[in-house]
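Here is one chain, start to finish.
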Amino acid sequence: MELTDIVEQIENVSKAEIKRVAPKDCSGIKEIISKSAPKDLYEKMIIGYLTSLCAEYTYPETFHLPQNNLDYVGFELERGNIEVETAGNMLGTCMKGGKIVAKKAGEETGSSMTGGEIVADEIKGIGSTIGGRISTEKVGKLSKDQGAEIFIRGVRFKRSLLGRLFGKGL
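Its structure:
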């Protein structure tokens, strides 16, 4: 099975649709991910869902994602663990549970996450979060709407009163 086979079989991009047509084991999913070069947002989201499904299928073991710079890694992750060296944008988007560990992550990391944990040495930008926990050593920018517990260099991030009033980043 290849990415194009999944695209042809689904009606829309959703976790339920991807789960319905994707292989039911992580080895089949890994093969699809390794052979894919997602070109558009649609394909990137599908690959993101596949990373989550693989982590959920292998739980409690950790899914080690060998491909770097993929967007949407851990998309709607509910449980399980993912390790990746370098993630693209939208890491952990809509994440509900589980844990993602990365050395580097792109823009909008944790966007709309409600639970789970993201640990990264360096994050380009943290998106608007609802819940969960993000730990990093270095972050480029931070959206003003944060519901997650965010720790930068081990210190809990708290926006200053002036920052909250004027919508300042860091």
